[in-house]
Design a protein that fits this description.
With 536 residues, this protein is α/β, with parallel strands linked by helices. The protein is built from 14 helices and 20 strands. The strands form five sheets. It has an eight-stranded parallel sheet. It has a four-stranded antiparallel sheet with strand order 1-10-5-8, with no helix packed on it.
């Protein structure tokens, strides 16, 4: 095809798709009078103006944080349980073998906050490793808190032996601190606690590829990837999952912060993928914001993504076929191979599903809209069918999907995100651009920087990929991310009560509206306005 003919084809395609979406009904939000609110009204500030919000809804002007300079100081001290001030019914015991000192305390009561309280004197402002030595006669779960902030829940097996449990990357300032153990299941005997400077910090010198993993990525896709790469370690893009095309989550964020997220995340695999794609196009056309997509891929031939709901497994689907070869079969060739008995029915169903997803993504490609594309997510958990068949099957499925979308369908607008969440499920480096993790915490737990997950993912990927919080239940703390040198590329807040109540009001179960305002107006986090000012 000549250059001029190709130009005419592109112009025709863009015009056709634009006409389709721009003259189709745009996602709307219901107000008291059922009026339609589009993105153009956000841009004209017809939503709630932050300046008009009540004084209670907004924090005072936020100053740049005065972050302490951390210089690693060797510190290590142990405090024995028998030296703590005990509350009833805790007592000093001696029966269990293997304890240090003159005994241990037991047994932690269940369902009691601050069942054990340990005052500490911290000698230097820095990150610490906190180690508990404990034992239990049955498997129990309890929680550790520092200065009233929930650090983590932890579980101990019922071996009866004293076992060390260490929590890394705990930032403590010089002076008095209070460590408490909450009794959830109870059942713990505690021997001692050790506080030591954290010497395990892993700060890799990240070496990132200069271009997307797809060597034929479109110019606009390569441009967005380059932007992400240049911002890596400096700023974090804000992101929000939308529950539907009416974008109630985005509207609420705008009302509370005066900002929109830089990334709108949608979902393929719903009952109406056309509406999902239409909403993604609207977002990009009206705001020039970034489009993100997750694929809730129902097990082929079923209506569920969960392994427990289906007996579909990938082991038998390929029947000896190499993924990269299967990926290049046309639908007609695949049918012929199946008729000859050389291709399984499962493989046909997989190809059909991928082709349907490709058809949806192609509409975005026609308009040259890059997509942060996250398929086959959370594989290491095993709850989705694509992870339940194990590592080998997952790697083959990833290869089939990558080659089918990239080589066969030539979708050159995808920035690939690997979200396997396990070293065992790590895919080849040349088939993904960003590694991500999904982090959901208990409601009282401060989200912080998620330092441990950041470092773990950096280790898995050898410091060669950008890292992201692809799903989260709470807001990353910009101050802690800077303290921990753990600045994620972007975050994606999940919808539902992680942000809003069923009636559309703000849900404060996981964080406050002030936290939301502060993050969206932080120098570290890029809202839509921030992104556009840097990207244009």
């Amino acid at each position: 095809m000549s250059g001029f003919s190709r130009f005419l084809l592109i112009v025709f395609s863009v015009t056709l798709v634009s006409m389709t979406f721009l003259f189709s009904p745009v996602g709307s939000t219901r107000t008291g009078q059922n009026e339609t609110l589009g993105y153009e009204q956000y841009l004209k500030a017809l939503g709630s103006d932050p300046a008009a919000l009540s004084a209670e809804a907004l924090p005072s002007d936020r100053k740049c944080p005065d972050l302490p300079v951390i210089t690693q100081v060797p510190v290590s001290f142990t405090t024995e349980a028998e030296d703590w001030k005990l509350q009833k019914p805790l007592t000093i015991l001696h029966e269990r073998a293997g304890s240090s000192g003159s005994g241990y305390i037991g047994t932690l009561p269940a369902k009691k906050e601050s069942a054990v309280t340990v005052p500490l004197n911290i000698q230097a402002t820095q990150h610490y490793a906190v180690t508990l030595c404990a034992a239990a006669d049955k498997t129990v779960t309890n929680a550790i808190c520092v200065n009233g902030n929930l650090i983590s829940q932890f579980s101990l097996d019922g071996s009866g032996n004293f076992t060390k449990i260490t929590f890394y990357g705990i930032f403590l300032e010089k002076g008095d601190a209070l460590l408490t153990i909450d009794g959830i299941d109870g059942g713990l005997d505690l021997d001692y606690i050790t506080i030591a400077n954290d010497t395990t910090e892993y700060r890799p010198d990240f070496v990132l590829g200069k271009s997307p993993c797809n060597p034929h990525a479109s110019a606009e896709t390569a441009r967005l990837y380059d932007f992400l790469r240049r911002q890596w370690g400096k700023t974090m893009l804000t992101g929000q999952y939308a529950s539907d095309s009416a974008n109630p989550e985005l509207r609420l964020i705008y009302q509370l912060t005066g900002q929109l997220p830089a990334i709108r995340f949608g979902t393929l695999g719903t009952d109406d993928d056309r509406a999902q794609i239409s909403a993604a196009v609207d977002w990009h056309v009206y705001t020039q914001g970034i489009v993100g997509m997750i694929w809730q891929w129902n097990a082929p031939g079923t209506d569920s993504v969960y392994a427990e709901d289906t007996d579909f497994r990938f082991h038998s689907a390929l029947a000896g076929k190499k993924p990269e070869q299967l990926a290049m079969l046309s639908p007609e060739e695949a049918e012929q191979e199946a008729q000859r008995g050389r291709l399984s029915e499962e493989a046909l169903l997989i190809l059909k599903d991928i082709d349907e997803a490709a058809a949806s993504l192609q509409k975005l490609a026609y308009m040259d809209i890059p997509v942060l594309w996250r398929p086959l997510h959370e594989a290491g958990g095993g709850w989705y069918w694509w992870g339940a068949s194990g590592r080998e099957a997952y790697l083959k499925l990833w290869s089939l999907l990558w080659h089918r979308l990239t080589d066969y369908h030539k979708l050159n607008n995808l920035i690939w995100i690997w979200n396997g969440q396990s070293t065992a499920y790590l895919v080849p480096e040349d088939t993904y651009d960003i590694a991500s993790v999904d982090v959901y915490l208990q409601q009282r737990m401060q989200f912080g920087s998620r330092y441990e997950q950041f470092i773990s993912l950096a280790r898995i990927t050898n410091g060669r990929k950008m890292l992201a919080l692809s799903e989260c239940s709470g807001l990353p703390d910009p101050d802690m991310m800077q303290l921990d040198a753990s600045v994620w590329s972007f975050f994606g807040m999940w919808y539902g009560d992680y942000l809003m109540n069923p009636d559309g009001s703000f849900c404060d179960d996981n964080y406050s509206s002030k936290d939301l305002y502060n993050l969206y107006n932080s120098e570290l986090a890029l809202s839509l306005n921030d992104f556009l000012s840097l990207y244009q």
